[in-house]
Amino acid sequence: MDTKERMKLEPIPMPEADMSERLAGFGEVNRGYSEELAQAEAERCLQCKNPPCRSGCPVDVDIPGFIKLIREGKYTQAGLKIKETNAFPAICGRVCPQERQCQAQCVLAKQGKPINIGYLERFVGDWLISHPPALTERPEPSGYKVAVVGSGPAGLAAAGDLAKRGHQVTIFEALHRPGGVLVYGIPEFRLPNITVDSELEALRQLGVEIRTDVVVGRTLTITDLRDEMGFAAIFLGLGAGTPIFLGIEGENLPGVMSANEFLTRVNLMRAFDEDYDTPVQHGRNVTVIGGGNVAMDSSRVALRLGAETVKLLYRRTRAEMPARVEEVRHAEEEGVIFEFLVSPVRFLADNEGNLAAVECIRMELGEPDESGRRRPLPICGDGSDDCGCWRASESVGATGSAGYEAG
Ligand code: SF4
Questions:
Q1: Do 214 and 276 lie in a common domain?
Q2: Same domain, 149 and 124
């Protein structure tokens, strides 16, 4: 097939679970490519000599290289090709923002049809999990011990790279389960825990030890690690687990929760599962504040917990939303209602002191800020009833409300 013919091929969409199935539980929405679909998508790649897609990848994966191996049916080699620079293809294929990174740089993006690099990466990542390659010899031991504090994406990536260089790596995780934000933050319908566990197992095969329930700074100190346990280096991959609140009136009302707490209770502590007794508030009318992936995750989790309405408030417009395009689409398909150019100014309580409503003001976009996105500005800022600002109490509902602040 020549280049012109390849350019005429249409992108292969990701198979997805039926809507009835999606909202009935926490099963994964994206079902993954079959071999046939992966082959068809791989056929579209032009195998560019100077591939711009690669420069869009933060870890410099040889993208045309692994796609060529898929085309040849060499799926294990394709997976190992990715693993040369990225230890977790099954995870990254699911959660990396490819449309802003590698796929944004693909030469076919100009026609609106970039190669679905993330879907292909996921395919070979899952292939390696279901067809684990024979163990290769471990690298020559360096003689150094390295401690990695935190088992989220940063800690796991560091541990993988260090182990490949022959260092003896121990990961210390404060929670009872390793994975950090991959297990406490990202819901199962986007990243199943079993996928994270499989990638962790591959890390163990490299010789990495993972110790859970160890709070470095409490259970062990940095001095203990260095002076008594003999670690030559310590990598701190502590994550960004502390929520940033808005600092507005009513933020401490029962019913207002950070997305971090909400998602941790549901994802890690399995509050959605009746066999677990983790408490979590089930809001009937839920408001989520924010426009990133965490906001999409919170909205979709709230729907799955039985919310009748879920409204997402974002102070800019759709174009500035930092969430992955696919997550925004999934949220909308599932019934999340988006309100753009609004910003909450206070949470209102009912007679019993519980959250009853969120009061917002209307925004407009000004000049770009330091992030490059246009700065949201209040249209008037005084919040008075006749100023055009928006009082959300009627639509949020007087009882059974919950608000999740996703930042
Ligand atoms: Fe393939 Fe697109 Fe990369 Fe070219 S830029 S090698 S077409 S993925």
A1: no
A2: no
DSSP letters, 144-173, are -EEEEE--SHHHHHHHHHHHHTT-EEEEE-
CA-proximal residue: ligand 1, atom 5 (nearest) = 106
| 341 Cα to the center of ligand 1, angstroms | 36
The response to whether residue 11 sits with its C-beta less than 6 Å from ligand 1 reads no
**How many domains are there within the chain?**
3
Q: Which strand (E) or helix (H) includes residue 235?
A: strand 233-236
Residue 107 Cβ contacting ligand 1 at under 6 Å: yes
pLDDT 10s digits, 232-268: 999 999 988 788 889 999 999 999 999 999 999 999 9
**Nearest atom in ligand 1 to 44's CA:** 7
Q: What residue numbers bound the domain in which 185 lies? A: 145-236
- Tell me the C-alpha distance between 299 and 400, whole Å: 16
The atom number, within ligand 1, closest to the CA of 109 reads 2
Q: Mind listing the pLDDT tens digit for each residue in 23-73?
A: 999 999 999 999 999 999 999 999 999 999 999 999 999 999 999 999 999
The answer to whether residues 382 and 282 touch, using CB atoms and an 8 Å cutoff, is no
Tell me the per-residue pLDDT of 306-333, one tens digit each, with 9 for 90 and over: 999 999 999 999 999 999 999 999 999 9
